[in-house]
Amino acid sequence: LASAAAAVPVLVGDVVAVSFGEVVITLVAAVAILAAMAAVYRPLLFSSLDADIAEARGVRVRIMSLLLLGILAVTASVVTPIVGVLLAFAILVGPAATAALVSPRPGRAIALSVVLSVGYMWIGLAVSYWVDFPPSVFVTALAFAGYLAARGAHALSHSRLALRLHAPPA
Question: What residues contact residue 97 under an 8 Å CB cut-off, 6+ apart?
């Protein structure tokens, strides 16, 4: 039980216990992550969308994959002590998966993912303030509910399209 109690801060984080040094490290890491993404955005996007064509056009797909993995690793390692593994996973994956279902355009999907992440965090923090429960529960639930709603709308629109395509002419 003693080791289980030590694992709880890793799972859910501890926003209150963030020191000034951790804030500085987070700020430096955020600037480095944004600079790295700005430097490799186009080839990374190209290799993510179609690796074979990107490789044929001279993009080093393996290096782009390793860079993406490195950027994701730095992001996760910086935010984990603050928000925890569960919330970091929910915020990294949930809004991105939802945005990918909603928008076929990568730029819009990225912007929507950021907006959803910030919205989920603010709503989760507000609800957590009024209901004495950790914000990670609400943020994760919002991310999951948003994904389910987008998945349902996506499936519904595709089923309607399939009905129109296979319907006999009137």
Answer: 147, 150
